[in-house]
Sequence to fold (265 residues):
Amino acid sequence: MHVLACVKQTPKSDNVKIDPVTGCLIRSGAESAMNPFDEYALEEAVVLKEQTGGRVSVITMGPPAAENVLRDSIARGADKVYQLGDMAFAGSDTWSTSYALAKGVEKINAEDKIDLIICGKQTNDSDTGHIGPQISAWLNWPNAAFVKKIVSVNEKSITVERLTEAGTDVLELPFPCVISVVKEISNPRVRSVKGRMAAKRAEVTKWTADDIGADKNKLGVKNCPTRVVKSFSPQRCTNAVVVEGANGKEKAAKLVELLKENKYI
Ligand SMILES: Cc1cc2nc3c(=O)[nH]c(=O)nc-3n(C[C@H](O)[C@H](O)[C@H](O)COP(=O)(O)OP(=O)(O)OC[C@H]3O[C@@H](n4cnc5c(N)ncnc54)[C@H](O)[C@@H]3O)c2cc1C
Fold:
């Protein structure tokens, strides 16, 4: 079984700051790492490899420094890694990003047939949750989002449990297909010493827009259908009140008085 995990390099903290003038994320000085949800996606890909005797590839679209998350993926058990990096991709919205990733998938698929693509449910910077479902739309492969468990796998299909607001759906998807996973899916392992050594030596395949045969009219900020009108960080409320008291009962009574005074109750 050939599983492809999609990983994105994102700021290490979820305290992502936005430039109030340009509306862009302030990335300079911010430490980066693998998007937390992608650690779960990659772990599940490696578990499937161990269970079915297959291989795991990883793809990212990002700037040169995104190579670090690919090396980290090798340390975590991936076999092959691919980076889509080109100025033509800069400023892409989710439509363009998923298009480029889908073109990368097509190229990998032509060399080594992919059975399953695993994405995280969302990122901790842009946070849209679009990419997995959009890749499946570009490829016309079936998709399940919010997958919390892989129930079974056979040669032709995968059966998964998907979280919904009402409970859980059990779905069978024929291969090739795309799933996006939530944290309940797996427990990311600690990187082994052997894995870290392999990560240093690993070859990262780097592709430009031309390499993947992408239509440049579908890439980059000028060609994106999304227009960001305004981005801003929410104002922090600084008028917090600490309720003092000798014990919990006294503090609770004061808190109730305070809530009544301010007409909250
Ligand atoms: C007009 C516009 C301009 C933008 N300009 C920039 C910019 O200049 N620089 C910038 O960094 N961002 C930019 N963004 C944000 C960028 O479009 C998104 O970060 C990107 O499309 C991925 O969306 P997301 O982070 O919401 O991913 P989600 O849909 O929340 O991610 C879900 C999953 O998809 C996979 N995934 C997501 N992104 C990637 C990726 N790049 N490679 C591999 N797998 C991935 C991961 O598995 C992830 O867990 C811009 C957005 C807009 C709307």
